[in-house]
Fold each of these.
Amino acid sequence: MIIKPKIRGFVCITSHPEGCAAHVQEQIDHVKSKGLIDGAKKVLIIGASQGYGLATRITAAFGSKASTIGVFFEREPNNGRTATSGFYNTIAFNKKAKEEGLYTANFNGDAFSDEIKQAVIAKIKEDLGQVDLIIYSLGSPRRVHPDTGAVHKSVIKPIGQSFTGKTVDTDKDIISEITIEAASDEEIADTVAVMGGEDWERWIKTLDDAGVIADGATSVAYDYIGPEVTWPIYTNGTIGSAKQDLRTTAKRIDALLKVTRGSAFISVNKALVTQSSSAIPVVPLYISILYKVMKENGTHEGCIEQIDRLFRTQLANGVAQDFDDDGRVRIDNLEMKPEVQAAVAAIWPDISTETLYEKSDMAGYKKEFLRLFGFGMKGVDYEADVNEALSLEE
């Protein structure tokens, strides 16, 4: 079939398998260009098919020559409907990894469930024995709790009072004000249940009880803080409550792993165009301005550059982690430089629908958004018939 992008709101409902493969190859090429990393050799990535999780798997495999197990929840192709981009990303990753003799295993299912956890444990015991790096990069809008069966759905809302702020409609290129009502206590609790640290801790405890975590192993979860302009809807909102829970959980996991000379920490990463960030009001407009500023001063990084830097500076063997006062690694340090934030803040009050493309990199934002789904990649013929009905077993 000939596949074109079909965008609904903040999601593209089609994905291009050859475009996704080109995107994966581009990330592999970046990691290889930087040389080998003396890092973990048996890596479990929970949330491994897109964004930061995919970049992590690529960096571990092609930077450290690691065996990787990826857990994700992606839609397969069906009745002429394309798979999700994460599904095609994983197929492309598998192919390239196997060409280089690298071990890969995949679990496409609900990472919150005990069934997936036990299946992963069985696979680790069978093939790897133990893992020495566990990355938690799960992004999901809902969670079925494995103990209660309750369905928790996350929301993106402020806490305490409603929020009115500037946002952009990326379909219509219109900047307007948006008002979001404050979250209820139940909505806050549900968001923490989905996006907080409970499942990360459940994974670690389950793996530890099964004896599949190696002595000296590290576990990392990904986080974001951002500038004050996004705080009402992010850091001080429902997502922020979930992230605070994640940070508190990190300390408990760190204490658990330290028993066998291991550690756990949070990596605070940069704002980037991802499927998750595109759904957050205010954030796409901030990212488009940030991209303009950072590209102009030569400090812009994408997912793969961020994670490659994390591995080389914080996760390589013999390298000491550089923590902030709250015990977090700050890979967002280039974004949060005072001069960068001052430049963004100077643009923010004056940007309008009329000046959107002048004062921001909205064109770059849209390009990156489409690339998430395999569109706009160099060397791909988007007028050609392609086979969308690929399988993870290929």
Amino acid sequence: MRRVTIYDSMSRATRIFAPMQPPRVGLYVCGLTPYAPAHVGHGRTFVIFDMVARALRRWGYRVFYVQNVTNLDDKLIARAAAENDDPLALAERHFAGFLRSMERLGARSVNYYPFATDYVPEILEQVKGLVDRGYAYVADDGSVYFEVAKFARYGALSGQKVEALKPGARVEVDPRKRAPEDFVIWKAATPGEPSWESPWGPGRPGWHIEDTAMTGRLFGAKYDLHGGGLDLNFPHHEAEIALSESATGLAPMVEYWMHSGLVAMTGEKMSKSIGNVSSLEQAIDDFGPGVLRLYYLNASYRSPVDFVPGKSLEEAREAYGRLSAPADRIAEILERDGPDRAGDPLPKELEEAAERLVDDLDTTLANDFNSREAIALLFGWARRLAEILPQIERLDGAGLTALAAPYAWATETLGLFERTPGARSGGWATVVPLLLAARARARARGDYAESDRIRDELRAAGVEVEDGADGSAWQFADAK
């Protein structure tokens, strides 16, 4: 396994990556709350952590990557009410659209997308444990709150001081709380909203506790790597630490924290709640996945990036054209003539340069996932090949393959230069089972209209679903 360093947000230092049980790595990334279509800002976070998982796997680590789905919260309930829809069905639809965007972007490294509502038993168990241990209290209406004052390390990740939290500013004014910084982990039911029975009456999970219930079940009390956008550093990730370590008595909950910089539009964080968003699906339609991935990765993952409509992706498209031109030409020749094509042998000096570059690319990316410097190395290689294009046209298949090795590296680790992005033979094997799971959840709650809608969308994409006593099976329509 290659030596890897990571900037750890908790220690505020770059550390050598040492998983608890090498080569196994538990990676958890806070995912989508699908109350509206995904935007360009979402795409950056998930492409960055797709790169992290891809690279670690290349270097010999066995990564189990989990990305949660918050399929029920206040925003979903409010949006569903405004649209006269069921919040769980609304979440399923937007998540299906998100999956299509991730497939098109080549972000296929996630092993499991757990839904919050599928972990209610684990959430209730954790809430009860926190109440029993004295870290949480029950309000008069049956809501349960975590008492921040009981957890001395609250604020260690973000540097946020508890005494700085003022009612009505950074925290919600709520007379049911003992202190303004306390946060709800079980919300008493409101008429007309989805709810579950609990020892404190019907209710639903609070936001923060879904993640710790999931990771406790999937990884145990401690795991290797937690990622997410910088906007989640406080209060969400701070709350996760407090909940997990209070529930288990074991610390640290996570060995390494990674936070990606945000995408800003006109200097302000891109956010669905603000409304300054640019559709991810539309950006992929207009510019293609390679351009978008280059835009995301051609900067330090920890740095914010500014998105200027009509400019940012046009510049990225021009840069991607220059970067990919030699790779495209080599691929075209090999696709036409095959890898055994006759021609001139590759000069030894170029062969060795390509080999050195691949090693340099690995070394560069392993330094805190420095994709910007890796892409700079690729631009240098593209310029060199462009200067000797007539010579390249005369090379044999082995020589062309050797010259393409740095581009093959970029495809494997950065997701660039994919010849058939979104090809059904690759990602569909992951996406279809997830959509079938969504369909099964709809059927379980009696929402047959939603179940039929998912089946019809799959059929429109060329996937036939057959229901049987043992569940649903699928195949491509032309495979019958």
